Amino acid sequence: MLPSQRGEFFTMKKWRNVAIAAMATGAMLTLAACGSSSKSGSGSSDKTTISMYMPGDKNKNYDEVMKSVNKEIQKKYPKIQLEIKFIGWGDYGQKYSVMVTSGDSYDLAFVQNYPTNAQKGAYADMTDYLKNGVAKKAYESVDPAYWKGLTIKDKIYAFPINANVFAQNALAFNPTFIKKYNLDISKVNSYADATPLLEKVKKSEPSVAGFAIGKDFKVSDQALEYPVTNNYPIVVDSSGKDTKVHNLYDLPETQKNLETLHEWYKKGLLPKDAATSTTTYNLQDDTWFMRQETTGPMDYGNTALKNASNGKDIQIRPITDPYKSEAQAQVALWGISKSSKHKKEAMEVLSELNTNPKVLNTLVWGLEGKQWNFTDKKDGKIKTTKDYKPGYFMGAWMMGNNSILYTQDSITDAQIAKRDSSIKDAKESAMLGFLPDTSSYKTELSNISNVYSKYGPILDTGTADPIPTIKKMDAELKTAGMDKVLAAIQKQYDAFLAAKK
Amino acid sequence: MRKKKPITAVDIRSFSAGANLFFNIFLALFAISCLIPFFFIIIISLTKESDLTIYGYQFWPKNWSAASYIYLKQFGAQVVQSLFVSIFITVVGTIMNTLFSATYAYAISRKDFRYRKFFTIFALISMLFAPGMVPTYLIVTQGLGLQDNIWALILPMAFGVYNVLIMRTFYQTQVPDAIIESARIDGAGELLIFRKIVVPLAVPGIATISLFTALGYWNDWMNALLYINNDKLVPLQYLLVRIQNNMDALVQNAGQSANLGAAAAQIPTEGTRMAMVVIATLPIALTYPFFQKYFVKGMTIGGVKG
Amino acid sequence: MDKATTSTAPVHPKARKNRNTVWGHIWDNRVFFLFVAPGTLFLIVFFYVPVLANIVAFKDFHYSDGGFIASLMQSKWSGFDNFKFFFMSSDFWIVVRNTVGYNLTFLLLNFFFAIFFAVIMSQLRNRRLLKAYQTSMLFPYFLSWAILAYFVYAFLSPDKGVLNSIIKAVGGQPIDWYNDPTWWPLILILLGVWKGIGYNSILYFATIMGIDPAYYDAAMIDGANKWQQIKHIVLPHILPVATLMLILNIGGIFRSDFGLFYLVPKQSPTLINISQTFDTYIYRALAQTNDIGMATAAGLIQSVVGLLLLLTANWIVRHAEPESALF
């Protein structure tokens, strides 16, 4: 005999109804999704779709922009249909790493971790296309420093975005307080120079962050390069006068700066919890007095900061010398998967992005007549409209050669001339083109990374007393294998310098 | 078999009045401590952004602002679409997972299943080792061809060994062998026994694992990151992660590029982050009472005791 | 499903006659095979096939034409090179101490509090209040550690935090919380337990609710008081579930709640020695290099330790209480 379970039977029936309803909804959703995807694909059956993965959010006017971009590309390459796939910032690294490791056959993707991936052979070799093939013109339009920076054993595996080929660290000052306290910033050429200004502002404005820094801040007023990445305290001198590979914190200049920062910390001139802080001090708010920014030729002085802060006339003082560096060469790269089935077509797309102003500017500025209008078509001067707002344009620094970008009409010819001369005058960093193979000391690097995470932030934010802390860190770095790593990189660097001569 | 008068659960299980009051106060205090963070989040989502930088996180802000919600309004249609996707994968996924886990567990809980030990260990091993993200990605995209398909959000979580072990214990403790034996003597087949005797007795267990599974599906965004590009199929949690990351990047890169627009730096990032938590949490948290109904159901099993 | 029907069909008549052949056993158990079929299929597709890629831990991974599998095959064997970084670390013992120490503490406290809450909730008189309590207690579970880290910061911020304001108001010396490790083990443990109570107690609560009321009935007739009821009815009934949880948690003792240990202390360098667990250590070591070989090796270490502990725990349980053992 079965126990009577009427109530439960009823429940089961209800569950079944829920399940059926859910299945039906799902079928509808799936159908809707299929329907829409087949619609977008139907018109291009005779075309080769090139998939391009990049970090960011899909433009709100994506369909219109891509229609116009594809029309332009197809004038030259009628068979190509470009499709951009956006992965959110922050998640991009993870998805990209899975795609690369799994040998996914994407056509184009915004590159992360170029040296390691390229050395392990994750990307298609572009050298032939660049030097003698479809992308020759694009290749020649890019500053040669980039190509030097990307070449691994005479081969090039990625296409760089020609933009800020050099960058300087700069201190940026909030104009509100400069005006209010009538400050003179023209003498500031190092951290220490800013001490009296900070003291003055902090005395009258206790709730304002003097030097607005957080846990990712790195002290640097010299032109240094990091052979591995700046997550390891291993540096060489950009000027090339010193050819030794150093522990960043053993340099007297670094220690001097850290002393300054520690003084500031003790006096309360920087946020007390800087070593752990993730606070973003919005540019346009008066919650900060001084901050550190990087600035390059394409920023036209403080114009970029001014635009970003809704017109605040933020003053900047560069504190490092300009070098065309390895780090800048790797800022924004596009790579082709080794297993892509459309390598040549992908190269053709890259070539268009970097040589065809109409393609690039539509992506970067939006649609002509909607987001912007020409004020001087011949010189490529434009004025943006009120419809030029986030969601309707893309970052110029990651899309294509910035020298064919239209410029806003507020940028004067003199500024453009200055931009070009500054690029011409900037020297190449001594380390440009040095991409060490880290595989023989990756065990030590991972341990160094852990030790550094225990000391880096408290040193750089001035939280810790530098000299004793560095001593303690160095002892731990030694056990982690720092000496072996420094020696190995030194050997590779010496060989690199010798080959360059 | 003797027939028993149904006794309501309240009569027999509850504390005496004094103890009841004491534990009520105790639980109420604890429950409040659990709700405070949520109120705190709602308040931050309504605080003026520059106040957060100047005064830190406060339980009562100096200046109120709805800027976060206004910023999120532009994603309105997408949020609704994603809510439906989330509900769909949660409901379908939970049904599948619960069904598959409950049946698997039942088989390995039965002593007369000759291969029960093999299938127990077969499942158990998968709890200890991790298959890794890359090979799983290959299976889903190339093996099953599920790129940009809603099933890519459902199938990878459609079975749970943790659930299996919980259910196995429920069957072992709450479904006496003798009931099954007597039903079998009455001529009921295994399927019938499972459906009409075992499942009803294991309702609290089924409610438990389906709640756990539903929470898992609702909170998952990793699968969406790996497999979904089509905006129509993006679930709510991933949409919110995406909005947040893009917003952070937009603000951090504000000074980096000459062409970036003015409005970029004005997004109330912290407030919006909190506003998104509110949106993502409320729907699922409020479904709990639905599941709870099935725990509380007082059951009367006529008959045999173990 | 396919397995059971297709493979048995041809031998079916014979099996009827001879119940001692393999096919005969399978036929006898056909319904059970039907029941395990979907799960088995799932485990093969989503676990047993992809898990083979774990051999990458013993390889020096390089890409070659033909995708991941070809790359995996053609990469050179590297023995235990990928494992070295963890054992060579000077922090090895700190990491092991923290991981095992915190997890053992969580294991005991979660165990105790989950059962304690489940028991008192199951005995409450007012159902509507109970619903409200349980729903509230689930809220922390929904909030990610990233969000809770903000909440904790609101209390512990050195200059703007609630706790320091209180300390200052009563004339004490404010504490620089994020640079002072003293309180952190306590803070992390409190938070970890608090966040999990709602979720962890559900399982026990459901188990208690499933107890046949006849047991209480009988106990009341015998004149048992509340405590005796709990001791003699409730606790024995949740023992199997509790044992299961104990075994599984012991198997997971080398895995830690990443967000709690990484995000809540705001990655403060001065707190790393007391908050570094295996998972945060691996993350900090490999986030930059993203080396699939080393990452897989780290996962394998956790798996092997977990396997050994689980076998031990199960062995002990099998000898003490055979019914509750996993296998």
Task: Provide key terms for this protein.
heterotrimer; A: 501 residues; alpha/beta; D-Maltodextrin-Binding Protein, domain 2; five-stranded mixed sheet; 17 strands; globular; disordered N terminus; B: 306 residues; mainly alpha; MetI-like fold; 2 domains; 16 helices; 69% helix; disordered C terminus
Structure overview:
The complex is a heterotrimer of chains A (501), B (306) and C (327). Chain A has a domain at 48-162 and 330-358: D-Maltodextrin-Binding Protein, domain 2 (3-Layer(aba) Sandwich). In chain A, α2 (62-76) packs antiparallel against α14 (357-365) and α17 (442-460) runs antiparallel to α18 (466-480). Chain A has helices spanning 6-42, 62-76, 92-101, 114-119, 127-131, 136-140, 144-150, 175-180, 195-204, 252-267, 303-308, 326-329, 343-355, 357-365, 396-399, 413-425, 442-460, 466-480, 482-500, and strands at residues 48-55, 80-87, 108-110, 159-160, 168-173, 209-211, 224-225, 234-237, 246-247, 288-295, 315-318, 323-324, 333-335, 372-376, 381-384, 407-408, 427-428. Chain A has 501 residues and is of the alpha/beta class. Chain A starts with 5 loop residues before the first helix and ends with a helix. Chain B is an all-alpha fold and 306 residues long. Chain B has 2 domains: 21-65, no CATH class; 75-256 and 263-296, MetI-like (MetI-like fold, Orthogonal Bundle). Chain B contains 16 helices and no strands. In chain B, α9 (161-174) packs antiparallel against α12. The longest helix of chain B has 34 residues, at 76-109. The two termini of chain B are 14 Å apart. Residues 1-10, 257-263 and 298-306 of chain B have low confidence and may be disordered. With 327 residues, chain C is mainly alpha-helical. A two-stranded antiparallel sheet of chain C has the order 1-2. The longest helix of chain C is centred in the N-terminal third of the chain and has 31 residues, at 92-122. In chain C, α1 crosses α4, α6 (81-88) packs across α17 (292-320) and α8 packs across α11 (184-209). Chains in contact: A-B, A-C, B-C. At the B-C interface, α1, α2, α5, α6 and α7 of B face α4, α5, α7, α8 and α9 of C.
Find the CATH topology of the largest domain in chain B. MetI-like fold
Placed side by side, the strands forming the largest sheet of chain C appear as: 1-2
Q: Give me the oligomer status.
A: heterotrimer
Treating each run of at least 4 consecutive H or I residues as one helix, how many helices of chain C? 17
- How many independent structural domains of chain C? 2
Radius of gyration over C-alpha positions of chain C, nearest whole angstrom: 26 Å
Uncertain segments of chain B are 1-10, 257-263, 298-306
What is the CATH architecture term of the largest domain in chain B? Orthogonal Bundle
**Biggest interface: chains and residue counts?**
B-C, 117 and 101 residues
Q: Name the beta content range of chain C.
A: under 5%
Largest sheet of chain B: none
The CATH superfamily of the largest domain in chain C is identified as MetI-like
Backbone structural class of chain B: mainly alpha
Mean pLDDT of chain C: 87
Overall strand count of chain C: 2
What is the number of helices of chain B?
16
The CATH class assignment of the largest domain in chain B is: Mainly Alpha
Helix content of chain C: over 70%
Largest sheet of chain C: 2 strands, antiparallel
Tell me the name of the CATH homologous superfamily of the largest domain in chain B.
MetI-like
Number of strands of chain B: 0
Domain ABC transmembrane type-1 (chain C): 96-313
GO biological process, one term (chain C): transmembrane transport
Subcellular location (chain C): Cell membrane
Family (chain C): Belongs to the binding-protein-dependent transport system permease family.
